[in-house]
Specification:
The chain has about 70 residues and is an alpha+beta fold. Helix content is about 20%, strand content about 20%. A hairpin with a 5-residue loop joins strand 2 and strand 3 (about 30-35). InterPro entries: 3Fe4S_ferredoxin (IPR001080), 4Fe4S_Fe-S-bd (IPR017896), Fe-S_cluster_ET (IPR051269).
């Protein structure tokens, strides 16, 4: 899983931080961002809830195919 926040769309509602505080934070301007090292979606159920809760759909959650050996 890979998560990102479109900061051009984000309005700083903070719903993502409430839903998944171990993955999201807000910067000095109040805009949401993914914490460093958490782009892989640590706590995936909470990340999906955060994306769903975003009032402007600024969070993208992409599933990544795992390598098969």
């Amino acid at each position: 899983m890979r998560i990102s926040v479109d900061r051009d769309v984000c309005i700083g509602a903070g719903q993502c931080v409430l839903a998944a505080p171990e993955v999201f934070t807000q910067d000095d301007d109040g805009l949401s961002e993914v914490l460093p090292g958490r782009e892989d979606g640590h706590g995936s159920a909470m990340v999906r809830e955060a994306a769903r809760a975003c009032p402007v759909s600024a969070i993208t959650v992409r599933e990544e195919a795992r390598d098969r050996e």
